[in-house]
Amino acid sequence: MTTLWSFGINTMLRVFLLAIPQPSWSYSLSPERGVTQALRLTTQVSESAPDTIVANLTKLLSSSGIPNDFLHQKNRSLLPVTFELLDISANLLSMLLPHQRVNFASVVHIESHFGLLRFTVSLDRERLCPDLQGTNTPCAVNLLVVAHVVRPPDEVFTASSGDQPVSQKTHTEAIYIDLTIIVADLNDNAPYFPKLGGSDLGIRNLYVTEECPLGTLISLPMALDSDSLDNGIRRYDFHSASTSVEIRQHFQIRLFRGIGIQCEHMQLDPENRMLDTNLEGLDAPSNPGVIPCLQVIRRIDREQVNQFNFRLVAFDAANQQGDVNVRLIVRDINDNYPTWSRVLTVYTHDGRTRLVEGLQPSGWMQSSFNGTTDNIRYWMTTQECTSQRKLVQLKADDQDDPETDNGRVNFQISEQSPDLERIRRRIFISGDHIYLTDSGLRGLSLMNISLLVTAKDGAGKFSDAWLDLHIEDCNDHPPMILMRGNEFSLVENSRGQADLISLITVRDLDVENSANSVFRCFLNDTRYFSLKEAVHGPAANVLVGGADQKLLTDVESPHEFVSNPPSTSSFDPGRRGRWSVFRLETQPTVHFDRESTARYIVMLQCVDNGTPALTSSRVIVINIQDVNDNHPRFYRKEDRQTLMKQNQMGWNTKRSDNLQSTWNLSEQKTFEFRIAENADRGSLVGRLYAADPDSGENARITFEMVSSTTRVEANQGNSKLEPDQNERFTVSTSGEIHLIKDLDREQQDKYLLHVRARDNGSPESLSSTATVVIHVEDVNDCHPEFHGEYNF
Asked: In angstroms, rounded to a whole number, what is the distance separating the alpha carbons of residues 17 and 554?
C-alpha cells in the first residue's frame, strides 16, 4: 500500500516521484530537504509542422506506472489535473528570434486541463540538433512540466490516520515531469558536397601517379547528408565528363565504412574493410558513414591521358542525390610523402606560445606504405571564452624539392573528420595556421573537438594528424531566472499554511560538471516569504538560503534536462546546464492583511560559483488580494476633500498608506440636516458619505433607506424623535437625501431617518447604519390669529 507522510493538517502533502521507473511504484520524501526528482517520461514523434498535436500528457501520465488510486478517485473517475509549463530545452528556444525568447512559453502550447501538447514552431531535427546531423544519435527536446492533481477531502490520507481523511479541504499535489520528446528523422534532405573554402569553384582536384600499382585507392570527396544515418548516404556513382568508356575502363568505385580512414591506407589490408558498391540492405545504423574510394583497375599512362574529368554522385536511402565535379590529374612519380613534425606551436589566450609534442597511437609503427608518421596525435587545451583567433601553427616537411609542387605542403581539414560541419562552423585553416571563426568556442555541447588535418603536397601525396582540442569552461553564463511574470497575487487573511505563490525555474548554462554551473538562490527578506527547492537536474548542486545565504539544500541527482539559454551572442542550442525549480511560498506563521499592507516587494537573487561570480536578480511584487472583511464607515463632509485626493492616488488599490488613512477617518453615526418647510418636492436635503477600506467591488458602496419597521440599534437614533413613517424623504444609491412630499413645520418639525450603507462584496455584503435627523425650518407662512372676543 502506498504510504504518505503527514506533516500536519495545514501542511500540503507532496508527492515525490522517482526519476527512473521502478518495477513497483514508490514515493520518495525528504522531510529535511523537501526536494524531489522529476518523473521522467519519453515519447517519440516525427518531424512535424507547427500546431500538430505531438503528445497527450494525461495519457502519458496515466501509463507511466503511477498507481491508479493516485490519479483516480474512489469511483474510478480521473482526478482533476492541470498542467503548467516550467521550462523548455535550449534547442527549442533556438527556433525563436532573440527578441522572442523572453516569452519562452510561446514555443509550446499545453491545453491545461487535457494535456494536449502542441508546438508553435516546426519540429525540424536538423535545426533542433545540428550537431547530430548525419548520425543516428536521437535528437531530443525536453519540457519541464508540473501536473497539479486536485484531490477532494476524502481522498487525502496519511499512514497514521488509517482510512480517515486528514482534512476537509481540497488538496493539491504536484508531479514534476521531465518530458523527453524524441524527434524521429524524415528523409527530407538530399546529399550535398560541402565547399572546401573560398577557392572552391565547384571542381575538386585529385591526383594519381602514373604507373601506380593496380588496386591503388584514391580518396574521393565525401558527401554529407543532414538527415540521420538511417536516411543518409548509401552509395556513390560516377559519370565521365568526356567519354564514359575512358573513366570506367581505368577506375571503379569501392566503398568502406569508418571514421578518419583514408582510402590510400586501405591498400595495406583491403580485405578487412572492403564492401560491395551497392550498400542497400546493409545494417547502416550499426556502422559509421560510407567512405568512397576510386580504385585503379587499369594501368595509367600519362602520355596517353593526363587527366580525367567526371561527375561524382552521392545517393541517399531514398535515392535523392547530390553531385560534384572532379578533376583527376595524372602526375609524374613523386617519391616522398609529407611528414608531420613531432612538435607543434600552440598559441595561448594570453598571447604567449607553447610547444606540444605529438603522441604516437598505442601500437603505432611507421607506415610501410608511405613511410610517414601518419595519424600522430597532438593534445592541447584552450579556454571556451578565448578572444584569440590564432590557435595552432601546423608543420609538416616533404623531402622533395620545396621549389617544386612535389615539395610544397598545404594543409586542410580532412573530410574524414568526425562532425565535419560542426567543426567548420568553429575552425578553419589558412596557410599553415588553424584559426577560430567568428562563432568561437562558446556554447559547445561537447567540450572536446577532434580534428583530422591533412598535410598534402602538390602531387597529391598526403599524411594525416589528429588534433585533440580540450576546451575549458568559462563562467560566461549567469544563472537565469524564469518566471511567468513579476507580479503575483495572494489572498489576505491566509495563515497557518505555506501557500504557493509561484514556481520559479533557475538554470545555468555553463558546463554541467563545472563549478561555474553551481548556483545558489536566496530572498533578500524571509520574514514573510520563503524559497524552497522542489525539483532539480541534472546533477544539481544548488544552494538555497535566506538573506544571509545560509545553506539549506545541497543535493545531487543524475537527472538530465536541457535548459534554456540566455538571449546573448553566446547562445547555442546544443548547450546543456544545471537547473532547479523553486517554490516561492508564504511563511505559515504570517498573517496578511491588505488593509495594513497591500503590497510586498522582495528581491530574488541567484549567484553562481564561478570566478568571478555572476549574479542574476528579479524583483517580485506580491499584491494582497482583498477579502470583504470591513464594514462601510460613515464620515463627515469635512473629510470628503481628503478622501477625494486619496482616490486620485488610488487609495483603494495597493497603497497601504492611503488604506491606513481610511481607517483613521472619524466615523460618524448621526447626521443632522435642515430644510425649509416650503421647499419644493425633489429638493436636496443633504448627502451622506461613507468609505470602505476594502478594494474593488468590496469597496463599492450603495445607500438605502431602512424601513421604519426595521429594527435599529438603540445607540444609532434619538428615541424621542418620530420616524418618517409617511416617507417624505428618499435616499439615492449615492447617498443623496431628497424631499418627496410637502412639509409643514407646524405639524412636525423634526424627522428621524435610518440609512444603511452597504458594500458590494461577495459572497456576503457588509453594511453599517447611520441615523439622520432632519430639522424643518420655519417659514413665515401664517397670519396672526385672534382667539376669542376682545372688548376695549
From this structure: 19
CA distances from 407 to 229, 336, 427 (A): 39, 8, 26
Of 663, 751, 641, 643, nearest in space to 705 by CA: 751
End of a domain among 442, 471, 500?
A: 471
Q: What is the DSSP letter of 168?
A: S
Please, where are the H alpha helices in 589-669? 640-648, 656-663
In this structure, the chain runs to a length of 792
**Whether 174 and 53 share a structural domain:** yes
Domain that holds residue 594: 473-625
Same structural domain, 426 and 553: no
For residue 601, being part of any structural domain is answered with yes
Please count the structural domains in the chain: 5
Q: Which residues pair with 607 in a beta bridge?
A: 520, 615
Lowest mean pLDDT among 203-217, 325-339, 351-365, 766-780: 351-365
Confidence of residue 277 (pLDDT cuts 50, 70, 90): very low
How confident is the model over 559-596, as pLDDT tens digits?
222 223 333 333 344 456 788 899 999 998 888 988 88
Domain stop point among 604, 625, 646: 625
The CATH number of the domain where 540 resides is what?
Answer: 2.60.40.60
Q: What is the pLDDT confidence band of residue 527, given thresholds at 50, 70 and 90?
A: very high
Q: For the sheet containing 321-331, what is the strand order?
A: 203-209, 321-331, 307-316, 233-240
